[in-house]
Design goal:
Strand content: under 5%
Distance between the termini: 38 Å
Low-confidence stretches: 1-9, 286-299, 321-342
Length: 342
């Protein structure tokens, strides 16, 4: 490994890592030897945010009750058969219940969605089998319904950044700002929802510190990678970033461009100056029009629901005040990308 690292080209700037120890160790060696910056896996980081927010006591109690119901049907062939009969009698979708798995991304949301969908057939079977004590009460169902709404933006973001057929790094900054916007606390929110949002925002700010002025040198290098990608992507403009952050990223991009010119010796000084001026103007004057992204969802299919949720993540930014310190007014269209992904 050491011999390999010693020959890594200097122009390579970053690597994406997961939570596997061997990959983390390799990234650290690259950082020590060549100054590489390890970029967090966005999908995994989103799930870490969700995992922390789900630890709210009231939410945990509701989830324990939900798991108990699902576990009963998973362990009983008779109950499962009875559930199918009730589904047919009540004209409910003939879907199996889904058990949450801690290592499976978004599985909590999938369990809650399916249980709410099958609430009445499930209650009917539990009543007939003398297991009414396992049934979810109205308060628990209301809490699970609210929880599903809270989790949907995180699922949409996870699905989008997990794509392999389109660029995702440049979208991370906008997704992060959009998730933060979605987690704004409303005065009408239930106490458990307020606590969920508070923890989620804290986790987002801790894991994605997008304000260059408030982080140390190591974190500054990490967050600058996704900000550079976003500023170089014509689909996005991050005008809500602090002036210090915008200036730092702009200067870093110009410096890298000029370094490439000097290293490769393929452009003269005039061209280098043109790169500097053009880059500065494009970032400081974000007047280019973005996609119109206000179309309402037109179908209830699973694929289109997911696409609509992803659309909403980007669309929510255009509805907020662009002067807000935490809201990105960038909007982007992902229909073409999702068509191949879904």
């Amino acid at each position: 490994m050491t011999d390999t690292i010693s020959h890594v080209p200097k122009l390579l700037q970053s690597s994406t890592i997961t939570d596997q120890n061997n990959i983390v160790s390799a990234a650290k060696k690259l950082n020590d030897a060549e100054g590489w910056c390890s970029v967090r896996c966005a999908a995994h980081t989103i799930q870490l945010v969700v995992g922390a927010a789900l630890k709210v006591d009231d939410i945990q109690q509701a989830l324990v009750a939900a798991r108990r119901v699902v576990e009963y049907f998973k362990r009983s062939v008779v109950a499962t058969s009875a559930l199918r009969e009730k589904q047919e009698q009540m004209s409910a979708p003939c879907h199996k219940l889904v058990m949450e798995v801690s290592t499976r991304w978004n599985s909590t949301l999938y369990m809650v969605r399916r249980l709410l969908e099958q609430r009445w057939p499930v209650c009917a079977v539990l009543s007939e089998k003398g297991q009414s004590c396992k049934s979810l009460n109205d308060a628990q169902c209301e809490m699970l319904s609210t929880l599903a709404e809270l989790l949907e933006p995180f699922e949409a973001a996870t699905v989008f950044v997990s794509g392999e057929l389109y660029v995702t790094a440049s979208a991370v900054a906008s997704l992060v700002l959009s998730l933060r916007s979605k987690m704004r606390i409303d005065s009408e929110d239930a106490p458990y929802a307020k606590e969920f949002k508070r923890i989620a925002v804290e986790q987002i700010d801790e894991r994605w510190p997008l304000d260059i002025d408030r982080v140390n040198q190591e974190e500054k290098k990490k967050c600058s990678i996704i900000l550079k990608a976003a500023l170089l992507d014509p689909r996005f403009k991050l005008t809500s970033l602090s002036p210090g952050t915008t200036r730092y990223i702009t200067e870093a991009l110009i410096a890298e461009a000029l370094q490439l010119v000097s290293t490769n010796n393929t452009m003269n000084d005039a061209v280098a100056q043109e790169i500097s001026v053009t880059t500065s103007e494009s970032i400081n004057n974000p007047s280019s029009a973005d996609h119109d992204y206000n179309a309402a969802p037109s179908s209830l299919t699973a694929a289109e629901q997911r696409e609509s949720a992803i659309d909403d993540l980007f669309d929510v930014l255009s509805d907020d005040n662009p002067a807000s310190a935490h809201v990105d007014d960038a909007t982007t269209s992902v229909d073409d990308q999702l068509a191949s992904f879904l």
